Structures are given as C-alpha cells and as structure tokens.
Description:
The chain has 368 residues and is an alpha+beta fold. The chain is built from 14 helices and six strands.
Amino acid sequence: MASSRATLDPHESVGSRGHPELALICDGGHAKPTGLGGVLQVDAERQQGLATWLAVFVATEAQPEMLADWVERTDSAIRSAIPELGCDERLSTTLRAAVEKHWLAFLQNLAHPDFDFRFVEAGRTLAAEIASAGLPLEVVIKVYRVAQQDVWAYGTEAIKRIPDGTCSQSDALIYFWDRAGAWLQASIEMSTDVYNAVKSKQMASPADRLLSVVNEVLAGDMHDPRRISTQLGGYPIALPQTALLLAGAQPDASAGERLARQAAVVLGLSSPVVVHPGAGVSWVWLPGSCDRRRLIELDDALRGLDMSMAVGATGEGREGFVTSHADAAMVHEIAGRGGHDANVPRVRFYEDIELTRSEEHTSELQSH
C-alpha cells in the first residue's frame, strides 16, 4: 500500500494535471506561514515544487481505494480511543461518515491558496448525536484530537517520501501542519456550538421545547411526519389539522390551555397541541376537522375571559398544520383592525374572512 502513496514526478507540470497553482509570495527564500491556514511565502522554484507535490498528494489521496484505507484507519483509531462510540450503531455509522466527508473536504481545499473551511453536514450530525446520547463534550473534542494525531502522523510519513530535489520537505511539512491544524480547530469550534445548542434545547422547559419544535415545523425545517409526531409527544400530525389562535388582554397561559381543551371536547377530538409564543397568546392545533356550530358554543366562555379565537381552515397533515396556522394568524390580524367591539363574535373563522374579502372585491369590480 505504501508504494501507492503520493509521490512526485519532477517533470510533471501542475497545469497539465488540471490543478490550480498556488499563489505564493517570494520572501527571500524563507518559508513561513502567512496566518491561519495560510500559504507559505517561498521563492518561485520552491513554490512550484510545493504546488506540484500538493496536486499529486490530493489527486492520489482522493482515489477510492486510498480514501477507503484512510477512513478505515482513522475510524478505527477513534473508536479504539473512545469505545463508547463503537457501542452505539448509529453513532458508529455517523462517525465513519464524518471521517470520510471531513477528509474529502480537507483535500479539496488543501491545494488552494486561501483557507476555506467548510463544516461538513456529517460532522454537524455527529456532534448533535453525541449530545443527544448524553455523552460529555469531551467526547466531541477527543474525536478531533485523535483524528488530528492521525492526520499529522500520516502527513508526516507522506512528506518523508518526497524525492530529493523536487519539493522542500520543510515547506510541505509547515504548510500541511498549518492547514490541518486550522481545519481541526475550526471543526472543534463548530462541533462545540452544535453540541451546546442541543444540550440547551434538552435543558429547556417542556413548554419551551414544544414551542421550539412548532417553530421548526412552521419554518419548514422539520419535514418527517414521524419525527414531528414524536417531538410533539405523539401528536397525530398525519390527520387533518385545524389551527386556532387564542388571544386575550391578560398574560394568562392557563386560560389558553383550558380553552384549547374545551375546543377539543366540543369537537370530539383528541388532545391538542398548545404553545404560548407570547403574553396572552396561545397557538393551538386540533387533530381533525372543524365543526363551526360547535366551536361557536365557546363564545360565552371567551367573553368571560375577555379573549378571542381565530380559526384557520382545516388542512391535511404537516402542510395543513402550517397553512391552517397561517390562516388563523391572518384572521386574528384582520379581526384586530376593527378594534374592540362587545357585539362582535369572539369566534372568527377563516371562511368568513375569505367570504368578506371576496364580496368586497366583487363590489369593487362592479363599481368600476
């Protein structure tokens, strides 16, 4: 296997292989880093030698058999150092994917003059899964520290095989270590942010966690119905969805909870999802169709609490969860423009708003 590692043909041009040359600056023939992930400043001849070796190294290491060898060795080293990752099948699979994607992304950027870190999605998933599994942050950091040791040992051995007279081994070593160190440090920082975000969500109150899930669904960031149902405590998201928006002058979340349960009872539906995005406001979802005659029965209860109820049009499944809420929000906004009127019904329906708007539009067209 060693014979297939990256070696250098001193007569082979970088341009003929289709790899970009490095933009290096002449600095009296002394190699030095230009900063985080920066390019070495060397004379033109050494510049060409380093550029050529990098192009060969990248092209060789990206070959499928070389990539598989790298992934197997690094993945094994990490699992050996952190046994708990190997005991969890999902973590083990994600770890292997992260090792591969990180290495490919690193190779893709290695020969370019500018350091351009890209946190691969598999790395983000690994940090999130480690946090969800209840493992400490030190596990995330150790994953990258073990990988760092393996990268440096591997790169050092590859650089030792550079033929004399083709590329300065010291130039290659400084450049490689600079890039690898910057990549791994950035990976640790990004992974730590992801880990802490997951932990913060876990430590939030049940109400805050529920609101967070609802916001993700409404924003289109969560699509899988099974995952949504699980995150919402088993709520049947696949059924038709009717959204309500309850609003009152008093910041009383318990009133919203009571009215949501009453709405479910009068409609003969199972328990609703209820979240409280702000003082005096409750968002409600009911798993089923709306019978307006039954909901109107809540008018007296709403008046007694000085609250209003906006009802969205029923929609199907996850999409209906989103669209019905948008309808209810629009009803609430339009109803609010008219100010407070004791004679106005406290239960307002999207269908009524649409009918009124349609009639107004028709009247306007007729007037012209």
